[in-house]
Amino acid sequence: MKKTGHQALFENNRDGVLLVDKTCQIIGSNFAFSTLTGYTHNQLNKQPLFFMLKSIAADERRTILRVIAHGITSFDTAIIHQKGNRVELSVSQIPYTEDGKQIGSYFIARNITEEKRATENLYKLAFYDELTGLPNRHKFNKDFEQSLAVCSNENKSFVLMMIDIDGFKRINDKLGHYYGDLVLKEIGNRLLENINDEQVEVSRFGGDELTVILNNVNEYDDIAELAKRIIKLIQMPIHFNRKEYTVTASIGIAVYPDHGKDTIELMRNADKAMYEVKKNGKNNYLCYIDKNKKPEKRVNRGVN
After folding, report:
1. What is the DSSP letter of 25?
2. What does the pLDDT read at residue 289?
3. Beta bridge partner(s), residue 166
């Protein structure tokens, strides 16, 4: 590589710099790039640029291929350092020129691992419940409004479930808040491991109240099956102090747009169904039915 005005940028840059020629062969790298990746200059020199693909984190490879295909010159990605740790990067591609002609490209990689971790921590504090790990009320409100907007625009349905944990107050009052928190934490772990996915989000609404958003609903049987799974998970025994404790769940269900077309109406009707369950023995689920409308296939039985 000829000594040019670019050399100072290359050698003194605190960010990692990789230089490739027009055939995408690596012809240079600085010490900072070796620190970021764990590869020495000799290991990288004269390798094809695709040599670096094996270092890209598995969950980022599809994005990188899209970046390459579309010629994107500024992007974020993540690599796995040779020592095994994940490194988050912000990458920019700029032309490498001599005598006014482009003869290659610089890839400048800035380590944003700490920055990204701080952003993720702030997001987690804002939108996730510290005790249970479930999405909190703020995230529920945000995602609920998003489901409303999407389903309204695309003429689709989604489900809201309101859940009250039966028997929690008894444990909390008798044994104290410490053990009450253990109950909530255990329930949160079960739901996160077995229920929450791309289509289902269980949130802690407050105290011993939970909410569920179920998107892309095709059959009422799917709603009933989900409610049964949640009830089964919550009523599994919880052990501490060498004793076994059991709580149950009362679930009220409302479906957009059948049982409401806005937040207030849907939540009110799911709440009505939930309190009807509590009045009739608890540990069950119930779908709201407006008796003024022609009833559709019921999840369990209706309430108005």
Report:
1. B
2. 76
3. 248
Query: What's the Cα-to-Cα distance from 42 to each of 6, 7, 26, 94, rounded to whole Å?
Result: 21, 18, 11, 23
What digits encode the pLDDT tens for the residues 161-188? 999 999 999 999 999 999 999 999 999 9
- Return mean pLDDT, the chain: 90
* DSSP characters over 39-100: --HHHHTT-BGGGGGGGB-GGGHHHHHHHHHHT--EEEEEEE-TTS-EEEEEEEEEEEEETT
Contact 143, 213 (CB under 8 A): yes
CA distance 1 to 29: 11
Do 229 and 195 form a contact (C-beta atoms < 8 A)? yes
Q: What is the pLDDT of residues 87-111, one digit of tens each?
A: 999 999 999 888 889 999 999 999 9
Per-residue pLDDT, averaged over 256-278, amounts to: 95
6-117 fold: Beta-Lactamase (3.30.450)
- Contact 288/269 with Cβ under 8 angstroms? yes
DSSP 299: S
Residue numbers annotated as active site: 208
What interhelical angle do 113-127 and 137-154 show, nearest 10? 90
User: What are the b/e assignments for 12-45, b being 16+ CB within 10 Å?
Assistant: ebebbbbbbbeeeebbbbbebbbebbbbeeeebe
Q: How many helices (H) and strands (E) does the chain have?
A: 10, 12
Taking domain 128-287, whether its CATH number is 3.30.70.270 is answered by: yes
Sketch the domain layout of the chain as residue ranges: 6-117, 128-287
Q: Are 98 and 4 in contact (CB under 8 A)?
A: yes
